[in-house]
Write a structure and sequence with these properties.
Number of strands of chain B: 4
Shape of chain B: globular
Number of helices of chain A: 13
Radius of gyration of chain B: 20 Å
CATH topology of chain A: ABC transporter involved in vitamin B12 uptake, BtuC
Distance between the termini of chain B: 24 Å
Radius of gyration of chain A: 20 Å
Strand content of chain A: under 5%
Strand order of the largest sheet of chain A: 1-2
Structural class of chain A: mainly alpha
Oligomer: heterodimer
Largest sheet of chain B: 2 strands, antiparallel
CATH architecture of chain A: Orthogonal Bundle
Order of helices and strands of chain B: HHHHHHEHEEHHHHEHHH
């Protein structure tokens, strides 16, 4: 099993290594500590979101509302903490955001698992609904005076120091959330009964049901879980940026989906792995942040990302056909 | 021109909704909503958006999707802008404007052709192929515009976005013509018949000898051309092209299409439903604006409306299935 996964992800791993080599040879500054710290910092939010989206895709669905859930939960939590004066505990802040995120996820689940409506359509509706509700009822102003605990958390560094050039580099403790989420999702998918059920629904919902999986319950869990993860990502985004901007995050959903798809998850369900997703995220983050080191104007980033998606999708299809050809 | 089949329950629901919204807004704000100015500004605002919804709808009828519509519109519009402002010595001449318009359609068709080729020849699923080309076209738009806004269209070109013919705004005229033509194409021609069949049941379509590759390719080209008309109107209305323009249009136009009764699994949906959906949403947006709600209340209501309409449909379908047993043919919507 492990060997098979390894083989599947080898081309992607090669692409990531290749890009690192190209970037490193093209400009030695790529390997500078502050650039590497930047890359790590920039991969936290997109990485956590991507892991959530991957779980949805493995179950054969697609979620485009997660950015709205992320910013809704983070913005609401920030305001709640400010207004109740409960901003002393960072744990409380994250837990209440995650709770809010899973409630919003439950709304998705209501339509998807119980009414059996198509996932893309439902989450399109809730994307618009959640964002509209936040901007209408919670407000549309930036909040720059964050609660004390959030400010303190953003200053809490895992690694920090001075480069030889004299500039500071820092990796915040919040980065740990990414590997922790990765381990959690990996355990969920590979070591639990529910994980098996998620892939089974993605393969064929009808069969999964007949095999005895409680598909409605599982789907409810999936969308609540993704809601909680998105809320976590939203909180980290707000905390590290030290500003709660309700217009942030919404609009990046297709970029995250692109990273997940590059990572080998299929929109038809049944496929998707943590390693692949992290590699996909690494690819997107490096292209978006480091291509500029090669003197490539930043506006070519999107072209490169687009081409990568097409090449990735094209080779998956071709390899799939070749595999089927071998078997029959 | 477009036959309104009122026997269709979804269209009936939409018509009732459109009329209800229109009446409610007229009663709540009689002097403002019903004013000539308001109706006029509505009919300048919605065509670009409605054309994008039309573009995505034709691909959804085949069971596919086109996520690249907005990028296609902007890439096409920027090609026109560059041709008009940087190539010709006298940009206001008829030839320069005509060529700019022709270039917009050509780029739109080309973008659609690229999507079609990726889907038909490389067999990449439509959602992935157009996710890739969405990034690709939008990147190219940023590259050719240098990341800034292009402006300086000729008056002749701006006429297409800001003037009226016989009292009717030009964008509205363009939309009515294109929606009518697309409706005719879908209901009155062999191409339309095959397109619906392909979307409804690809396997049956293959066994009945339909050249599905050709139909798909043409559908995506049609989508690209319709999107380029939207690009044309956007550019002419604002006298500028900017790679970030209309970023929120993509998901909203899919929302409109679904609300209009276009089945995302393919095979079902009418252009008349789409037009009704666009109209009712536009009435709501403009009415909320007049009732002094924040401009974001629109997102809230649109999203909520989509979910309510779908949930009601599903509930009705489930009840019918329970009453008559699941063997009744599913009408998918």
């Amino acid at each position: 099993m492990a060997l098979l996964n390894w083989r599947k992800e080898l081309p992607l791993f090669g692409a990531v290594l290749g890009l690192i080599l190209i970037l490193g040879v093209g400009n030695a500054a790529f390997f500078s500590l502050d650039n590497l710290a930047d890359l790590l910092r920039n991969s936290i939010v997109i990485g956590i979101m991507a892991l959530g989206v991957m779980v949805v895709m493995a179950s054969g669905g697609i979620d485009v509302s997660f950015t709205a859930i992320a910013i809704f939960s983070a913005y609401a939590t920030t305001r709640l903490l400010l207004e109740t004066g409960g901003g002393e505990s960072i744990v409380l802040a994250f837990v209440s955001a995650a709770f809010l995120g899973s409630i919003l996820g439950l709304i998705n689940a209501l339509f998807i698992a119980w009414l059996r409506l198509p996932t893309l359509i439902v989450t399109l509706g809730t994307l618009s609904l959640f964002r509209g509700a936040m901007l209408t009822f919670l407000g549309s102003e930036y909040i720059t005076a964050l609660p004390n605990s959030m400010v303190a958390f953003s200053r809490w560094d895992l690694v920090t120091g001075l480069t030889s050039g004299g500039s500071t580099y820092r990796v915040p403790v919040a980065f740990l959330a990414l590997p922790l989420t990765a381990v959690l999702v990996s355990l969920l998918l590979n070591r639990t009964y529910w994980g098996r059920g998620i892939y089974a629904i993605g393969g064929d919902r009808e069969s999964a049901e007949r095999a005895g999986f409680a598909t409605a319950g599982l789907q409810t869990f999936i969308y609540c879980f993704v809601g909680a993860l998105s809320a976590l990502a939203g909180m980290i985004h707000v905390t590290l940026g030290r500003i709660a901007n309700p217009f942030d995050l919404v609009g990046m959903e297709l970029n995250v989906i692109a990273a997940v798809v590059l990572g080998g998850a299929r929109l038809t369900g049944g496929y998707g792995s943590v390693t692949g997703t992290l590699l996909g995220v690494a690819l997107i983050v490096m292209i978006n942040n480091s291509l500029i080191l090669l003197g490539v104007p930043s506006f070519w980033q999107r072209v490169v990302v687009g081409l990568l998606i097409l090449i990735g999708a094209g080779t998956t299809v071709v390899r799939g056909r070749a595999l089927r050809g071998v078997r029959t | 021109m477009i036959r309104l089949k009122v026997s269709d329950p979804h269209t009936r629901l939409l018509m009732a909704m459109t009329v209800a919204v229109f009446l409610a807004m007229s009663l709540l704000k009689p002097g403002v909503f019903l004013s000539w100015n308001n109706l006029r500004s509505i009919s300048f605002q919605f065509p670009e958006f409605a054309l994008l919804a039309l573009a995505v709808s034709v691909t959804m009828l085949t069971g596919g999707i086109d996520l690249s519509i907005v990028s296609t519109a902007l890439l096409a519009a920027s090609a026109g802008a560059i041709l008009q402002t940087q190539v010709f010595e006298n940009p206001s001449s008829l030839a320069a404007t005509g060529l700019a318009v022709a270039a917009i359609f050509a780029v739109g068709a080309l973008c659609g052709g690229v999507n079609g080729a990726l889907i038909v020849h490389l067999r990449i699923p439509p959602i992935l192929a157009t996710l890739g080309t969405m990034q690709l076209f939008s990147g190219l738009t940023i590259a050719v515009t240098g990341g800034t806004a292009l402006y300086g269209f000729s008056d002749r070109f701006l006429f297409l976005g800001n003037s009226s013919i016989l009292g009717l705004p030009v964008p509205l005229v363009i939309f009515v013509l294109l929606a009518g033509l697309t409706g005719l194409l879908l209901t009155r021609t062999g191409f339309g018949f095959k397109l619906y069949l392909l979307g409804g049941n690809p396997r049956a379509a293959r066994f009945s000898g339909i050249n599905s590759a050709q139909i798909l390719l043409r559908t995506y080209i049609l989508s690209g051309v319709l999107a380029s008309f939207a690009g044309l109107i956007m550019a002419a209305r604002s006298n500028s092209v900017n790679a970030d323009y209309g970023a929120s249009y993509l998901l909203l136009s899919i929302l409109v299409a679904v609300l209009g009764g276009i089945n995302p699994d393919g095979g079902f949906g009418r252009i008349s439903g789409l037009v009704l959906a666009v109209l009712s949403l536009q009435f709501i947006a403009s009415g909320l604006n007049m009732l002094r709600f924040s401009s974001f209340a629109k997102d809230l209501v649109w999203g909520g409306l989509l979910l309510v309409v779908l949930a009601v449909h599903q509930a009705v379908k489930n009840r019918r299935n329970r009453a008559t047993g699941p063997l009744v043919a599913e009408d998918k919507r």
